[in-house]
């Protein structure tokens, strides 16, 4: 047996020893920082005693077998060459292999790879400047050629001056190949290049070739005039160009072509001499500097001064209210006159002078100017003076003239309040200017009735005829100068006289629809064209209007009125009417109230019982407030007074009770309008005759069995007295507003009335029915329908464990009883509940607070109302989520550009939509945010954020859902990409791999002492040790099977913070186990090793297979029951844990061999043969000293043993490969079966 197994076990041991001493580890944290058109920038974490080499191949090329003769590289590294030595190509997919090589043995290496990494697109080409201004530059370029890997999505344009570099990003404009750069400085040098961007982070093209230019100077403002004479003009200006060298001034007479130029001006002012008198000139100015000449300024126009003229002659004429015309001749002598100054003032006040400038017209010998806007009725003095740009001439003598007074305006004739029938009031507005008095004229039909002179602005004309139309005019007078007569006022009528003794009376011909109105008028002279008689309906507010046609008649008959309606009449006299003089009206006189007689209804017999008759009728036309029912037996006289009164005008049926069975009755009805002493009653209707049925008594034991908001269920027993066959029952359900009838079969003694109104009182009566009609109805049993659904449920959540609920009482249905309590119920069942709420009396809104809810959880809430009737309807469900709690940040790691945040979700449910990550630089007000979508069932989350090297940051995380944002996590601070420590590594101690860790590091410089703190999980032990600054390593005593968080701190300052945190794991202790082999099973038993274990791993190897089983940490025994009889097996038992990244850490294991039995009858010694340990993989003994000696095997058996040994050697190599994979950190959870 030893010959069969020994070679494989020896090889397994030697492989384990070599792998345990290997010092080459694969690179870690390999990331692509950026991709450009022809290069990659890579970064990884280096370890000591390792050289690094990079091989780059196109993605379809197989992986390299070795790094070859490539050069050593350091992190970070910019790669520009492929494995073949050629430059990298744009828009191409590559695979990048980073080899870690033993510096002492180049054949000892390992690698990690980044596969499918694309280079950026090629850079834009033919970058040109298409326009240059003083503050802007237009840039154009040809599109970068996009490939199938990374499409160009944007362009980024960078422009640089001597003192600033600015990047302008064209977002979402891959189709646009131009940009206007604005906001530039004039006369400044700029260099420009363009980069093509993609929609993938940090993948972009190389920079295009740069183009450069200098901006032009700014346009200068137009010059201003500081002084002018008859032959010179002095100019000055302002200039904002700091680098101006000289100025060029150009000018020309405005009426001539061509120009003169003055160059080389070095100051901001100059004087131009030798100009013509009385001449207009145009000037422009431009700036010259080293970049060229700027845009010319806008034109400035100035005029030289002319000579002086002589004095003109003056004359006046004109008689208008606000205008005086002045005429004068051109004065003799002097150059051409440019204008005249006309001055005027009131004759009584020379200090109140007004002037106007009149332009001179060449060739005219005389001139006219109309002075406007003068005060009417006022005397003015006027003089004229000639002027030109050289000066002012001598004024002319003044002349005087008075303007005509203005017309009075707004002449209005209105009725006078104290007497509207024989007097009218005339008012007008005082005209502008001076007026001494007024002439007032009053006209009727254009004939002057009276005139008078008044010195105020109103006049009362008296003694006028009632109903006649009058108008008026007013003339203003100033110092015996009269204005024009004003426009005629409106025509205004006096009121006609009032009617008296208005009466409203019924007629004998038709009392149901006719009423007559009568009134009286005075006997003196007046004008009346018609009367307006208005009839008002008191109950329905209907109005009927009619105008009388015959003025001699003072009565009017209204026909086709509503029967039974109450009316009031009014009469008003109307004067004649015209467009100029609308009608006037007398006062309105009102009559007494009078009601028309209603019409009778038409009764019909609907059903009869032994003692009742059911009547129905069609309501009569018109207004009525109640009905009278008259009845008598056919052999008796009809009573004169009503037998019954139906007080509801809405009723259309009635059941007459207390009649005799099998008797003939005659019925008549009348309608009544009104409830007071002036009510009217219709005549009686035509009679109807019917016979009462044979007797059916009242149903017995009527009971309400149940009610809902829309139904009432009732039961009863049959009548005790009846003498006909009962064919069924009629159930009547009546409220104030409705009645429902349900017919049921004779065998049934119950019924449900549906379609009812909630919260309403109903009267239930029941009668038996037969072929002869209905029997006697039972006495009324009252029932109330329950409440409807509460309305308008609203919910809000403002805390983690509470929610506010509010609702309105049921709005539909009647008003039988208010809700006295509400039951609020919420789910899910595992955290649901209910609460009773008592509302405030009369409250339109009810509210309560749900407590004890779970944070970030969803709930369905409903509300049901209750009162003394019972439970009302339950409302529809409303869904709400509670606010999330605070997440917990578990760890943060950081590089120079990125930080990785790890956190756990808050306690409570899964009702979380996303997480808001907020972070900011310490000392800065700007905050940055990142949103992470939540995944149902997940408890741990992470994200990466962009950071700036060496800045201190603070970060926090909040959970959010439909209720809002929850509590934030704790604030955690970190420094981006900086640590006093570098190359910190924790490795297993070779001699004590499970109980010691070797810690090594480098520092930037030597200072103080270092504090090393480490804490294990699941162990809760916390340890620390102080190390001198001269030391660069130490050993830590640890427990097997733990994940340790190790921090290094420089002991300086009052409260030092950890500057470097790393994570390391210790192997579990090796479990000690024993084997028991049988025909088809192998039983393992073991005891728990020292330290912590998360799982056990059993591997059993035969010539046919390698099998692996993962076991629970609580187990101490396991039976392998799928083995083959008479087969050699190698067994290994490992204790395993998982490090912080989920990678398996496995203990060492002593391999043990076992051969299953051939059959159950094999000797006891064979079954009990001990599977002894192979110490260090060097020896194996299958028996004790008492084992029987074996003879030498035949040659065939030896050959078979060699074949089996070779196969076991191959299996041992596979096991060693798994062990190597574990040591290199490549063995994860998914490598083991669940």
UniProtKB/TrEMBL annotation:
Residues 578-596 have a biased composition (Polar residues). Residues 480-508, 578-613 are annotated as: Disordered. Pfam families: fn3. CDD domains: FN3. Residues 1-22 form the signal peptide. The chain crosses the membrane at residues 1197-1220. Residues 26-122, 123-218, 219-307, 308-406, 407-497, 498-594, 597-693, 698-789, 883-979, 1067-1159 form the Fibronectin type-III domain. PROSITE patterns: FN3. Keywords: Membrane, Repeat, Signal, Transmembrane, Transmembrane helix. InterPro entries: ECM_Regulatory_Proteins, FN3_dom, FN3_sf, Ig-like_fold. PANTHER family: FIBRONECTIN TYPE-III DOMAIN-CONTAINING PROTEIN (PTHR46708:SF2), TENASCIN (PTHR46708). This is Fibronectin type-III domain-containing protein.
């Amino acid at each position: 047996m030893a010959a069969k197994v020994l070679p494989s076990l020896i090889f397994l041991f030697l492989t384990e020893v070599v792998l345990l001493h290997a010092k080459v580890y694969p690179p870690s944290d390999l990331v692509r920082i950026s991709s450009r058109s022809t290069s990659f920038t890579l970064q990884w974490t280096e370890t000591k005693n390792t050289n690094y080499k990079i091989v780059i191949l196109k993605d379809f090329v197989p992986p390299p077998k070795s790094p070859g003769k490539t050069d050593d590289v350091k992190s970070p590294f910019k790669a520009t060459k492929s494995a073949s030595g050629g430059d990298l190509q744009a828009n191409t997919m590559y695979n990048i292999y980073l080899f870690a090589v033993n510096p002492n043995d180049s054949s000892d290496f390992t690698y990690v790879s980044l596969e499918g990494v694309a280079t950026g697109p090629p850079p834009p080409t033919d970058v040109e400047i298409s326009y240059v201004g003083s503050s802007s530059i237009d840039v154009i370029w040809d599109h970068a050629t996009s490939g199938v890997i990374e499409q160009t999505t944007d362009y980024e344009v960078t422009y640089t001056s001597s003192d600033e570099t600015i990047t302008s990003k064209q977002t979402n404009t891959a189709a646009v190949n131009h940009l206007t750069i604005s906001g530039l400085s004039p006369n400044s040098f700029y260099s420009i290049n363009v980069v093509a961007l993609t929609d993938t982070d940090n993948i972009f093209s190389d920079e295009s070739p740069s183009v450069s230019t200098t901006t032009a100077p700014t346009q200068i403002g137009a010059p201003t005039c500081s002084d002018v004479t008859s032959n010179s003009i002095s100019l000055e200006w302002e200039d904002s160009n700091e680098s101006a060298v000289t100025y060029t001034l150009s000018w020309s007479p405005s009426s001539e072509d061509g120009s003169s130029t003055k160059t080389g001006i070095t100051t901001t002012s100059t004087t131009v001499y030798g100009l013509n008198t009385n001449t207009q000139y145009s000037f422009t100015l431009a700036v010259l500097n080293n970049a060229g000449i700027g845009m010319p300024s806008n034109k400035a126009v100035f005029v030289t001064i002319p000579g002086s003229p002589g004095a003109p002659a003056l004359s006046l004429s004109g008689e208008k209210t606000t205008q005086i015309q002045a005429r004068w001749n051109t004065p003799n002598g002097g150059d051409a006159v440019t204008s005249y100054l006309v001055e005027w003032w009131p004759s009584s006040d020379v200090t109140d002078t007004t002037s106007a400038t009149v332009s001179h017209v060449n060739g005219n010998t005389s001139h006219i100017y109309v002075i406007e806007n003068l005060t009417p009725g006022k005397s003015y003095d006027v003089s004229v003076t000639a002027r030109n740009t050289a000066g002012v001439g001598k004024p002319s003598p003044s002349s005087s003239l008075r303007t005509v007074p203005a017309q009075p305006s707004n002449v209005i004739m209105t009725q006078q309040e104290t007497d509207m029938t024989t007097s009218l009031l005339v008012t007008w507005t005082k005209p502008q200017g001076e007026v001494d008095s007024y002439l007032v004229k009053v006209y009727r039909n254009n004939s002057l009735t009276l005139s008078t002179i008044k010195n105020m602005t109103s006049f009362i004309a008296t003694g006028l005829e009632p109903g006649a139309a009058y108008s008026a005019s007013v003339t203003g007078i100033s110092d015996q100068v009269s204005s024009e007569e004003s426009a005629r006022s409106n025509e205004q009528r006096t009121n006609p006289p009032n009617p008296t003794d208005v009466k409203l009376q019924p007629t004998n011909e038709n009392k149901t629809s006719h009423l007559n109105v009568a009134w009286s008028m005075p006997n003196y002279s007046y004008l009346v064209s018609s009367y307006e008689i208005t009839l008002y309906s008191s109950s329905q507010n209907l109005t009927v209007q009619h105008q009388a046609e015959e003025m001699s008649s003072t009565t009017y008959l209204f026909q086709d009125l509503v029967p039974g309606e109450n009316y009031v009449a009014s009469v008003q006299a109307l004067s004649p009417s015209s467009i100029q003089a609308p009608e006037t009206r007398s006062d309105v006189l009102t009559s007494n109230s009078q009601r028309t007689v209603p019409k009778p209804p038409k009764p019909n017999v609907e059903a009869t019982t032994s003692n009742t008759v059911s009547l129905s009728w069609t309501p009569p036309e018109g207004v009525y407030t109640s009905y009278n029912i008259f009845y008598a037996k056919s052999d008796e006289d009809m009573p004169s007074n009503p037998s019954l009164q139906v007080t509801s005008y809405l009723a259309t049926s009635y059941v007459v009770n207390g009649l005799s069975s099998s008797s003939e009755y005659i019925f008549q009805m009348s309608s009544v309008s009104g409830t007071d002493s002036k009510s009217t009653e219709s005549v009686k209707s035509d009679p109807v005759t019917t016979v009462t049925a044979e007797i059916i008594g009242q149903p017995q034991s009527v009971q309400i069995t149940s009610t809902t908001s829309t139904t009432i269920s009732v039961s009863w027993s049959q009548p005790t007295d009846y003498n006909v066959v009962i064919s069924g029952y009629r159930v009547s359900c009546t409220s104030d507003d409705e009645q429902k009838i349900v017919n049921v079969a004779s065998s049934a003694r119950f019924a449900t009335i549906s379609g009812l109104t909630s919260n309403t009182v109903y009267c239930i009566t029941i009668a038996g029915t037969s072929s002869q009609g209905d029997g006697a109805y039972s006495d009324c049993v009252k029932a109330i329908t329950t409440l409807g659904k509460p309305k308008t449920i609203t919910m809000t959540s403002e805390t983690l464990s509470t929610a506010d609920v509010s609702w309105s009482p049921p709005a539909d249905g009647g008003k039988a009883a208010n809700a006295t309590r509400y039951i609020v119920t919420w789910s899910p069942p595992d955290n649901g509940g209910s609460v009773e709420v008592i509302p405030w009396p009369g409250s339109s809104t009810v509210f309560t607070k749900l407590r004890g809810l779970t944070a970030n959880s969803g709930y369905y809430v409903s509300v049901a109302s209750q009162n003394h009737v019972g439970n009302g309807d339950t409302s529809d469900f409303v869904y709400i989520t509670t606010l999330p709690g605070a997440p917990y940040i578990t760890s943060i790691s950081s590089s120079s550009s990125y930080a990785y945040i790890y956190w756990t979700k808050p306690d409570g449910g899964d009702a979380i939509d996303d997480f808001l990550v907020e972070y900011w630089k310490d000392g800065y007000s700007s905050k940055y945010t990142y949103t992470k979508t939540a995944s149902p069932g997940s408890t741990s989350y992470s994200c990466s954020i962009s950071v700036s090297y060496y800045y201190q940051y603070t970060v926090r995380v909040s959970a959010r859902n439909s209720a809002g944002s929850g509590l934030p996590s704790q604030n955690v601070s970190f420094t981006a990409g900086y640590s006093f420590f570098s190359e910190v590594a924790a490795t297993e101690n070779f001699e004590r791999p499970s109980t010691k860790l070797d810690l090594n590091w480098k520092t930037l410089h030597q200072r103080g002492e270092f504090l090393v703190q480490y804490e294990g999980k699941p162990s809760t032990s916390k340890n620390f040790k102080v190390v001198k600054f001269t030391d660069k390593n130490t050993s830590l005593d640890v427990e097997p099977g733990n994940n340790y968080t190790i921090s290094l701190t420089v002991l300086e300052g009052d409260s030092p913070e950890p500057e470097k945190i790393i994570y390391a794991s210790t192997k579990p202790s090796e479990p000690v186990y024993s084997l028991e082999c049988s025909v088809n099973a192998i039983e393992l038993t073991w005891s728990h090793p020292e330290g912590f274990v998360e799982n056990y791993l059993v591997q059993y190897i035969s010539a046919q297979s390698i099998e692996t089983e993962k076991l629970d940490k609580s187990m101490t025994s396991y039976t392998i029951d799928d083995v083959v009889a008479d087969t050699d097996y190698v067994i290994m038992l490992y204790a395993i844990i998982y490090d912080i990244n989920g990678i398996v850490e496995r203990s060492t294991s002593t391999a043990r061999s076992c051969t299953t039995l051939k059959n159950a009858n094999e000797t006891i010694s064979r079954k009990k043969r001990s599977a002894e340990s192979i110490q260090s993989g060097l020896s194996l003994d299958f028996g004790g000293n008492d084992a029987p000696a074996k003879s030498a095997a035949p040659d065939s058996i030896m050959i078979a043993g060699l074949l089996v040994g070779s196969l076991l050697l191959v299996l041992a190599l596979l096991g060693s490969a798994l062990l190597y994979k574990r040591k290199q950190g490549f063995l994860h959870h998914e490598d083991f079966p669940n």
